[in-house]
Amino acid sequence: MAGMEYPIIIPVLDWAGWNSKSAYRGVDKKYLDLLEPLLFDYPAKIDRLYKRLLELEEQYEVFIKNGKLKQKDLEDVDEYIFLKIKIDRLADKYLTVQKEKEGRDLGIFKRTELHHTDYFIDLDAGNDANTGLSIAQSWLTLAKYTTTTARTAGDRAFVRANTSEVMGASLAFDEDGNQDNLIQIIGCDSVINDPWTDGSDVKPTLSFGDGNFSAIPAGDSFWKISRLGIKESGSNNGNIYFSGNSNYWHLYQCELYDCSGGSGVGSKILQSLVTYEECAFLNNINVNLSVSYGGKAKAIKCTFDKGTATSIGLRVDYNAEVECVECDFSQTTLHSGFDVQIDDTAVVWLRACKYEIAPNIQIPGGAIFMEDTDGVYGAFLATYYQGTIELDTTVKTGAATFSIKILPNANCGINNPITLDNQSIIKFPFNIQCTTDIEKTITVKIRAVGTWGTYPTAAELYIEFLYLNHAVNATRTSIKSTQVLSHASDWVDFTVTFTPLQTGIAYGRVVMGAYEDVGDGIYTNGEAT
């Protein structure tokens, strides 16, 4: 097994033994052209997971030396055990596929019932001893499809509507789809997918019975789960936990709810990329959706509600990013904490979303951008740790069609200012085209908001432009305004003058580094002259 560092134990089996193992792993029913890519995919995945296993071993040695187990240490132990079992299973699948191909090439295995992609699962009345290839031969459990048998890109499992499974273990996933063909789990309905002709729209459900279990994609990519309820995890991983670069997952019309133990999280993402579409999150005691440690998520037309117990709708931290499009927060039941909360340089975009509780930012570095809030076209609000930046179409002057209201808060100061730049707002008007060797004066009008007792100084409030200062190189010089506000309702011209040495864009921004009281801030006119 070239390229694999993990020590593989090869079982001593005759051809009858390998034939039985092929049947157990479901590869005896697969076309060879579907199986052959697995001979490359399995070693690559084993290598990736083994590296993570070695990292966990090093961490384990550290906390053993410290003589004290923290909660994160216990989670690492759980991950280590899970990955060790998974790697051994992947190795077994690799050997089985290898022997299946060899047996067919030698003419020892003569397969007659070869199959393409579709499987059937009846969570109430199926049998895992069946082939899974028809409704009469349906499997009983999801694990038979995701874990026990080998999957190939394009596989689809149809799960009977209005059936349920309670698992006494975590649900693992092993293989990957690809950019052209996902591996799918499809909960049946009464219109589009109804092979049992039940006429039911009740989603099938997977419950973990409040045990220390979860659905855990770990380094598995290109999957889609449709119309499945996942609930009642008692694990710190929540109901479904994406980790280890589990990328290009798509959850469609799923329900993630009733996680009242462990972390109390409906779905959790670490270092993975997941899309949720028309999914419902509710009644997860702490957080409905948690995205962390560089994870990325997109939520489209999803609902986030308290149910009876949820504190936070969406929590994003540690360099993670989330985009929500036409999502509803607290529209049925109000979260007891926050609709959206971020921490540690995370970024969230809320596009045409509805919310009831103002977004919350715990520490500097992160931002929440809200566009077309409540379906109102053009409404825009950016929330930072230091305050808010909001588009305003009523207060303006000159030819401008809008202004930008900047309201600092108590976290804002000269060393931690709130800054309006081209990342703050869609209609950013202060990137200015300039011409070589022609002096340029740029004026931005600013006026006060609120009842300032002492207006910001020129060091606390200014416009700044970066212009090209070399005839060939792409170096720039910064120039700042020196004007100050003096009256509550008067527009003041903040100006800078410079001569660029090369034709190009001068990048502008408005910096506010002062706070006096709630409601005190500035309007920046939406044009530069």
Task: Give an account of the 3D structure.
Helix content is about 15%, strand content about 30%. It is built from 5 helices and 36 strands. A hairpin with a 2-residue loop joins strand 26 (about 380-385) and strand 27. The protein is elongated. The mean pLDDT is about 95.
Largest sheet: 16 strands, mixed
Strands side by side in the biggest sheet: 1-2-5-8-11-14-17-20-23-25-26-27-28-36-31-34
CATH fold description of the domain at 392-528: Jelly Rolls
Strand residue content: 25-35%
Oligomeric category: single chain
Mean pLDDT: 93
**Text of the CATH class of the domain at 392-528:** Mainly Beta
InterPro entries: Pectin_lyase_fold/virulence (IPR011050)
What's a concise summary of this model?
The protein is an alpha/beta fold and 529 residues long. The protein has five helices and 36 strands.
List keywords for this structure.
16-stranded mixed sheet, Jelly Rolls, single chain, 36 strands, 5 helices, alpha/beta, Pectin_lyase_fold/virulence
List the helices and strands and how they pair.
Blueprint: H1 15-25, H2 32-35, H3 38-66, H4 71-105, E1 118-121, H5 142-148, E2 156-159, E3 164-166, E4 171-172, E5 183-187, E6 205-207, E7 215-216, E8 223-226, E9 229-231, E10 240-242, E11 249-252, E12 255-257, E13 265-270, E14 273-277, E15 280-282, E16 287-292, E17 296-300, E18 303-305, E19 312-316, E20 321-325, E21 328-329, E22 338-342, E23 347-351, E24 360-361, E25 367-371, E26 380-384, E27 387-392, E28 403-408, E29 418-420, E30 431-434, E31 440-449, E32 461-468, E33 476-480, E34 492-498, E35 504-512, E36 521-528
Parallel strand pairs: 1-2, 2-5, 3-6, 4-7, 5-8, 6-9, 8-11, 9-12, 10-13, 11-14, 12-15, 13-16, 14-17, 15-18, 16-19, 17-20, 18-21, 19-22, 20-23, 22-24, 23-25
Antiparallel strand pairs: 25-26, 26-27, 27-28, 28-36, 29-35, 30-35, 31-34, 31-36, 32-33, 32-35
Helix pairs in contact: 1-4, 3-4
